[in-house]
Amino acid sequence: MENIIGGEGDTEVQITAGRKYHPEFSIVTVRPLAAHPGVDAWVVQLQLNDHKIRWSSRVSANVGLGYRKLTDSKNANFYSYLNY
C-alpha cells in the first residue's frame, strides 16, 4: 500500500475473513493539507470499507476534513473532524 498511496501521513489497511470466508476490508488514510510544524495542521481523512448489510456485501467511502492543534504544553492534540 505504501507504493500506491504515497506521501506524508498514515495509512491503515485491515483485511479479515468474513462470513463464509468472504474477505472484508477497510482502508483508512490521513494526509496533511497544510501544516505549521509544532502548532497546527489541516488534514484530510479518506476511508474505504467493505461491510455486510443483511448478508449482502456493500462498499462505502467516507471523506473527512480535520484540524489538529497542539495544546500550549505540546503534550496533547486537539482534533476536530467533519465527515461526509
Overall description:
- By secondary structure, the protein is mainly β.
- 0% of the residues lie in helices and 69% in strands.
- It has no helices and 5 strands.
- A 5-stranded antiparallel sheet has the order 1-2-3-4-5, with no helix packed on it.
- Strand 1 and strand 2 (23-36) form a beta hairpin.
In short:
This protein is mainly beta.
Question: How many distinct beta strands?
Answer: 5
Describe the largest sheet: 5 strands, antiparallel
Report the mean per-residue pLDDT as an integer: 76
* Residues in helix, %: under 10%
Class computed from helices, strands and strand pairing: mainly beta
State the strand order across the main sheet. Answer: 1-2-3-4-5
Percent of residues in β-strands: over 45%
Q: Unreliable stretches, pLDDT < 50, 5 or more residues?
A: none
Radius of gyration: 16 Å
Layout of secondary structure:
Elements (H helix, E strand, L loop, with lengths): L9 E8 L5 E14 L3 E14 L2 E15 L6 E7 L1
Antiparallel strand pairs: 1-2, 2-3, 3-4, 4-5
